[in-house]
Amino acid sequence: MRGIIHYRLTLIVAICVGWPSLRAQDQHLIFGEVQMLSPKVNSKGDELMPVLSPDGNRLYITRGAFEKNVGGRFGGQDVWVSDKNEKGEWQEAEPVALFNNRGNNAVVGIDSGGKRIYLLNSYEDNIGSKSGLSYSDQSEEGWSPPVVTKIEGIYNLGEMNSLYGLNVNELSDVLLISMNGPYSMGLEDLYVSFKFTGWNRFHQASGAGVQNEGFYWWSPPIHLGNVVNSVGYEISPFLSADGKTLFFASSRKGGFGSADIYYSTRLDDSWTNWSAPVNLGREINSRAFDAYFYIGQDSSVFFSSSRGGKFGDIYATQLMSSDEDILEKREEIFTPSKTNIPSLVEEFEIPTVTSVHGLETLNRIERNILFDHNSDNLLLKDLDLLENTIAILKANERLNLHLIGHTDEIGSPRQNEILAAKRAKAVNDYLVKSGIDQSRIVTESRGESKPIADNQQAVGREQNRRVELVFGTVKEGEQFE
User: Which residues contact 412 (CB under 8 A, 6 or more apart)?
Assistant: First the structure.
């Protein structure tokens, strides 16, 4: 089955959920009865990559080798969607026209609020001639046309490159990649990349030629190491909610079929040190091709398998019980230690502030934590700035910190005031968790009222979605000598 192009596209979304941890046959995971979904979801073509919306009522699938696709039966794959009715039954799947062209199309991630969908394909033309990662945002008018983002090191992928796959987690800060890269042991291996917003200290927007809201760069991919990866192929990664457990399909020796589903646990923050992969057993795997494992918020499990015939179908089961909570919802951002990301803490000497002039000098450095559209999630890109701020506060006990939340002008003023307050609180909570006393932090929400850039331009709105960090003195009215 692997000879068919679609089986080599690695796309599955990791939704942050609170479902119980896992037990497979002989490996601490127990599943319910496995059942094929109805013909309303499955067809005579290939059904792959099930992705559930956060509310559990919409199932996205990728369908290939189907005459009703944009490119026909012998063209690329298309995104289809099935909605659940009041009885909990999946309805007839329909194509998502906005997301489909003649290339290979698939949903590769949905953010936690269900307002942003990540997509395979660059959408730079109507025939899908260039591979890439794009996203679409939902508004009152519907889904926006897909916008391409940049992945350092693999952005220029050539014409319709199908030998790679992408997986964006629900906080949109970790990207898993399946590709035959420079460190691959055999065929496709698994890599990880971390997200940076287009307007930050690590990259300059000049020369990018992109003026789209939310334009991102992803760091150069890091090989996950030789424990997870093998001389065969590793595809279809699914990252657990806590960021520590990885599910994937592999053709390594010892499986039941042409590809089996495995899981492995991350042992430290390096993203290169993993436990030995564990086969999910005969409850999930078959003598055929099994991949694209996905778990929903209600512990429902979906995956694709060719056990029923020539092509893949979507199967479902239920995660029943587990010994330990290895997939508990994570509360902190990832802190990889070997990503070669420059550190403000390491690169700049921590100042000792003893005068008004010193305080003014400190505040001349712009300290803005940027946010995704309609989100209050802290992302990896801001870790160094926050750690530098913490170091300054710990070295200067007379200082406090004023956190001022802002938004762009999209949405109502009241909604934006609330969102700005949530953003300030997210930064506040991170600082308190890191040992800064709450009494030294003041938060404020200014909503959309204080933009620093043009809200009519996407790049301006991106800069306006921020929390300002302003240093002051601990006691009101206190002055330095």
Answer: none
Per-residue confidence (pLDDT) for residue 456, from 0 to 100: 87
Long-range contacts for 40-43 (Cβ within 8 Å, ≥24 apart)? Answer: 40/82, 40/90, 40/91, 40/92, 40/93, 41/82, 41/90, 41/93, 41/314, 42/313, 42/314, 43/93
Q: Which two tokens stand for residue 157?
A: 């992928």
What is the CB neighbour count within 10 angstroms for residue 470?
14
**What are the extents of the domains in the chain?**
5-322, 344-473
3-state secondary structure of 114: coil
Give the integer Cα–Cα distance in Å for 156 and 198. 18
Q: Which residues of the chain have pLDDT under 70?
A: 1-28, 127-129, 152-163, 196-216, 321-349, 379-382, 474-481
| Segment holding 431, helix H or strand E | helix 413-433
Amino acid at 180: N
Give the list of residues 6+ apart from residue 274 with CB closer than 8 angstroms, or none: 224, 225, 227, 228, 246, 264, 265, 266, 267
Report the C-alpha gap between 89 and 99 in whole angstroms. 24
Residues in CB range of 346: below 8 A, 6 or more apart: none
Torsion from C-alpha of 294, 300, 301, 306, nearest 10 degrees: -120
Look-up: residue for tokens 């990349």?
A: 193
Q: Determine the pLDDT at residue 204.
A: 38
Beta-bridged to residue 354, according to DSSP, are: none
**Residue whose structure tokens are 């089996």:** 260
Alpha-carbon gap, residue 270 to 272, rounded angstroms? 5
Q: List b or e across 44-82, with b for residues whose CB sees 16 or more CB atoms inside 10 angstroms.
A: ebbbbbbbbbbeeebbbbbbbbbeebbbeeebbbbbbbb
Residue whose structure tokens are 């994570």: 330
Third-level CATH fold of 5-322:
Neuraminidase (2.120.10)
| pLDDT reported for residue 219 | 78
So what's the pLDDT on residue 474? 61
Measured distance CA(381)–CA(371) in Å, rounded: 10
pTM, two decimal places: 0.66
The answer regarding whether domain 344-473 maps to CATH 3.40.50.300 reads: no
- Of the CA atoms within 13 Å of residue 9, those in its CB half-sphere come to 33
Q: What is the dihedral of CA 450, 456, 461, 464, to 10 degrees?
A: -10
Dist CA 223 CA 272 (whole Å) = 7
CA distance 94 to 334: 36
Give me the count of residues in the chain. 481
Cβ distance 339 to 222 under 8 Å? yes
pLDDT at 210: 38
Tokens of 145: 């046309």
